[in-house]
Every structure is written in C-alpha cells, then in structure tokens.
Design brief:
Length: 129
C-alpha cells in the first residue's frame, strides 16, 4: 500500500489515539512512569508534558487528519507543527537519557513516532484523500 494522503491521514488518527492512550496509561499506572522517565527528574516533570502533548500532538494530529480528508492546503503546515513538537520531545528524551542513562524506552518511542510522522508529513504534499 502506497503512503498516499489517505494513509497519512489514518496515521495521524492512530497517532492521536496512541498518544492519548499512553498518557492515560501513565496517569492511571504510576509504576509505568519510570519506563519512560528518569527517576532523578520525577513524575511531576513527566506529567507536565501531558497538557502540551494533548493540545499539540493529540488535537494537532486529529486536525491534520481532518484537514487532509477535506483536502485543505493547510494540512501539511499543521503536520509540521505536530512534527516540531515531536522533534522537541525527542531531543529532550535523548538529552535526558544521555544525562541519566535511564528511560531508553522513551527515546525509542519518540524516535519511532518522529520518523513515522516525517514520512506521513512528506506524503501530504499534493494530498488526494
């Protein structure tokens, strides 16, 4: 299956659901937090990212999907905003891992999400959903 605009739109919906589910998991299961965050930094800092992720990653990804379905020329611009947020988070996770040696799973998850979002965003050029 080719990575056309329709597949890219579906990817952004899946990303929104996955990010929301991940935050729900961390909120409901505090024992999962050390998998993704260094103990030295603590849960408070991790949870401080939740509002931004909800706004930019979850709602932004849903907006990209909707704009893509409507064949809006703005879909790609919004996708780049989402991508920027992912890149920032990825760099932050890598820096935290280098500093502490902990939470490698966060680096893996962020790199994977960022790479997939790059592919999806690049497929939004000339979208035909």
């Amino acid at each position: 299956m080719a990575w056309d605009g329709s597949v890219a739109a579906r990817y952004f919906v899946v990303q929104a659901i996955a990010v929301a589910a991940w935050w729900a998991w961390l909120a409901l299961d505090p024992t999962a937090r050390p998998l993704f965050f260094a103990r030295e930094v603590g849960s408070t800092v991790l949870l401080a990212f939740a509002a931004a992720d909800g706004l930019v990653l979850v709602l932004g990804s849903l907006a990209v999907a909707l704009l893509t379905r409507r064949q809006s020329p703005h879909a790609r611009a919004v996708a780049f905003v989402v991508l920027g947020a992912l890149l920032y988070g990825t760099v932050w996770c890598v820096a935290a891992f280098v500093a502490t040696g902990e939470a490698f799973l966060a680096v893996v998850a962020m790199v994977a999400a960022t790479a997939a979002t790059v592919l999806a965003t690049l497929r939004l050029d000339g979208v035909r959903a």
